[in-house]
Amino acid sequence: MTASEAVSQAPDVTELLREGEALSRAREYTEALDRFNRAIAMDPSNSMAWYNRGVLLEGQRDAKGAKQSFTICLDLDPDHAPATANLAVLLERMGDTDGAGAMAKRALTHYPDHPELLDIRRRCQTGQNVQPDLPAQRPTPTATWQDEHLTKAMDKAGVTDAQAVLEESTHHDTDGDGTLDEEELERAASVVAAQQQVQETMVEEESIPVPEEATEHVQVEPTETPLSELIDMARGELDAGHPKAAIGLLRERLRTDGAENIEAWLTAATAMHRLNLEDHALGAAQHSLRIDDQRHEAWTLVGDVHASKGEHQAAVEAYTTGLECGASEEVANRRWLLLTREAHPELWFEEAMSKLGPEAPLEDRHALATWLLDLGEGEVSALEHLPDQPPTLPEAPELGSKVMLLLANEAPRLRARAHSLQLQHLEAIGLWKEEVTKDAEDASAWTGMAKALEAAGELEKAAKCHARAKQGNATASSEVMVASEPALTPASMTPEIELQTPAPEFQVPVEPEDEAGDVGASLLLPVASTDVQAPEVQSNPEVDLAAAALEATTNMAAPMRTTTPEQDAQQGREWFNRGTQLLEDKKYREALSCFDKSLSLLADDEEKVILVLNARGNCYYYMEDYPKCVDAYYQAMMIRPAQVRGQTLYNMGVAYAEMERYGDAIKCFEQGESRGLTQEEVALAKEQIRRCKILRKEKEKQEAKRNSRRR
């Protein structure tokens, strides 16, 4: 075949576009992109080829390449409606709110009632920030190549920017073998050459020389439009999505009376950035900073341009200065996309506190959790060693709460440390006990257990754990008595509850005069709501709560004493009184910590243990942790089942009602009526029974409806 015959048989641009569109509909995107790239290399002025390329690049998360393609398409065909609409969506995904709003406004002239475009315009007008989900930089090349082939391809296409060719090459490994051969590099270089050809034309038409020094003020003819009005007109063109028109309005005046006008230069720089004339946009933005270096808009624009050029460190520095000058949260979102733990640790951790959630990568969440825990533990240590510091609200419990939200059910050791920061010592000790059980020779687990015990006030046990950590060899974990986390009844469990037969008469124990009021006996607030959505009821095996409660109480009641029983009892009463005051002050987590310490010291006095357990139940109720609330009451009841107080049964009924376990709640209220309640309290119990019966009936109706729909 002769060369002329080969040329005659080569597909023309129209045929390549047709093939690319067919391949795209068939979801063969790599082949489709190859056809559009070849069409562009043959005819850089074909707007449809650029548009189709932009659509495919956006699908491959090459936001910068897609933006360039849509922008070139619109430069070639300003009325290309699909490119205008797609560019509006893309810019919002990249975090460019202003550009997205302008393009959406322009696209709505073609699609007046398009819901997504209307939403974009509304969000941009109201300042509603959307978290960017596309990176500003192009994908990093992963395929290998030979420098000799790259040089030949660049020479053949007449381009000199090797980095641009390599970035483009990520879309030209058509055989997918991870190696860019000479032909694939030539195709990448030809697309870069086509981009440069179009953009050079735009530069000639739209670029504005930046003055190196301030020019003398040039007298403006009286017939010319005032500069302030001209700037407003240019901004109007920008808002309408016409950056070329904006530059056209300002070009001549930037050489005369606008040479030192920062608003004019910011407007021109923004227009050039939207046209992807990044070098010229950067020069204009930097000139505006020479006029006034406190304008956050100028710093933000410098950051945007650097980000588009892949210069991440310079972009982060510019965004940071812009934020210091008053830039909005939107700029912080753009900066967040460029931050890394390795390159910007301080900024990354500060931003990660508000940016990372449970869906973030596990490695990032663990790193942030560790950083937060170090902060919280540092605060606790500082407060312990610097008692004369002015009182402030501790941040440690809040930091612990953030860690728990961040980790969900992962990383038990980090969660144990978070529980300690929240003063949830039983939970922390329980997690460390599980870690020690897994590997009795793990010194770090014993050290973690020791620190948790120290935070709970169990100094002697903590010393034994520290000693065990230092030994570094296996010994029986039973040598150290550890307070166990009580067995809980999850909210999803609904076991039948058999309460003890009521005693004929209940004698209220007489407390010493120096004891606090009976917190455990006070009635909780009644259930107010009568409109509760019933959850799915699941069948679960019964749980021997009495045995679990007695076991937990026994575990907590057996410390190795170095003090006399009288001293323990006195200290236990002091912790209980302190917890009672904290409970009255609505500091429920701190109160729990005090009650936990009191529990181990008063373990030999069953009446006091009952009081403490009931008080713990009240704390959990006000914290809306109803399963633990019920569990605490159960522990108290099972110590002396025949002497259960009516107030305890009433409070347990309220907790069950909050869990929507209305049958169990009714049983508690009914049996509580004959256990020492006053007439007013009996009336309250009867009202609760009436409400629970109504709610139970409504719940049964809803379940019946769901079951009928399933059938």
Helicity, as a percent range: 55-70%
Count the strands? 2
CATH topology of one domain: Serine Threonine Protein Phosphatase 5, Tetratricopeptide repeat
Q: Helix- and strand-based class?
A: mainly alpha
Shape: elongated
Strand content: under 5%
- Assign the CATH architecture of one domain: Alpha Horseshoe
Distance from first to last alpha carbon? 71 Å
Strand order, main sheet: write it out. 1-2
Largest sheet: 2 strands, parallel
**Total helical elements:** 33
* CATH H-level superfamily title of one domain: Tetratricopeptide repeat domain
Supply Rg: 36 Å
Describe what you observe in this structure:
By secondary structure, the chain is mainly α. It has a domain at 519-710: Tetratricopeptide repeat domain (Serine Threonine Protein Phosphatase 5, Tetratricopeptide repeat, Alpha Horseshoe), CATH 1.25.40.10. The chain is 64% helix and 1% strand. A two-stranded parallel sheet has the order 1-2. It is elongated.
Brief account:
This protein is an all-alpha fold and 711 residues long.
